[in-house]
Amino acid sequence: MVGMEFVAANSRAIDLIGACASIDDFLTLLRDSSGEVAVIDYSIRGKNRMEGLALLGYLQRTYSNLRIVSLVSHVNPVIIRSILEQGVSAVVSKFDDVGHIITAIHVSYGGGRYLSPLIKNTLGEAGEGNQRARKLSPREIEVIRLYLSGLSIQKIAALLNKGKQTVSAQKISAMKKLGAKNDIELIKSAAALDLVDEADVTRAIFS
User: What is the pTM of this model?
Assistant: First the structure.
């Protein structure tokens, strides 16, 4: 919200249609407006609604002409690559100067792709990175994140509009790639690789 307030106050070339605090409000605004670029906080959460990679994928499938700028607080190269694979036009770190949001909007509107300095450096410094994490597909990462947020396989399947067996197979596949033999090892591996938020891990442990 702070970033969008900055955009509204400092760029006459950008017409801010609205700022939303929830996924529901955002989807409603999107249906009722003709916006060309959407700035989305990757960490935004929704109650029984799609979020994260699932939300980005839905937007690309449903609003193919919409350009998306994703704001992230974690600069994990695996997550960043997964976001880019969803077709977003720009990724901006919240720890970069907020002015990069305006640059990302302009570049996205013009049909280009933009990475803020911290994002670009993270991808450049990652090199080969952690091979186990890089083997994970975007969907496997999303299933892990949702599972460690406390959702059951059944609820994840409903959220992603997938079959229970498909989601279960993706979880098992992710565990094998991470070398995790049980949920405790999955939590440790995911946390060590910064694939999930600390709050998600806490909920998974105490749920």
Answer: 0.65
Task: For residues 63 and 79, give the distance between their C-alpha atoms in angstroms, rounded to a whole number.
Answer: 22
CA gap 120, 72 in Å, rounded: 13
User: What is the CATH T-level fold of the domain 2-126, as seen in this structure?
Assistant: Rossmann fold (3.40.50)
The predicted structure's pLDDT at residue 168: 92
pLDDT in tens, 20-52: 878 888 888 888 877 789 999 888 776 656 778
What angle is formed at CA 142 by the lines to CA 140 and CA 145, rounded to 5 degrees? 110
The answer to whether residue 7 scores a pLDDT higher than 90 is no
Domain 131-206: which CATH class? mainly alpha
**Distance from CA of residue 1 to its chain's centroid?**
17
Q: Where are the domains of the chain?
A: 2-126, 131-206
SS (H, E, C) the chain: CHHHHHHHHHCCCCCCCCCCCCHHHHHHHHHHCCCCEEEEECCCCCCCCCCHHHHHHHHHHHCCCCEEEEEECCCCHHHHHHHHHCCCCEEEECCCCCHHHHHHHHHHHCCCCEECHHHHHHHHHHCCCCHHHHCCCHHHHHHHHHHHCCCCHHHHHHHHCCCHHHHHHHHHHHHHHHCCCCHHHHHHHHHHCCCCCHHHHHHHHHC
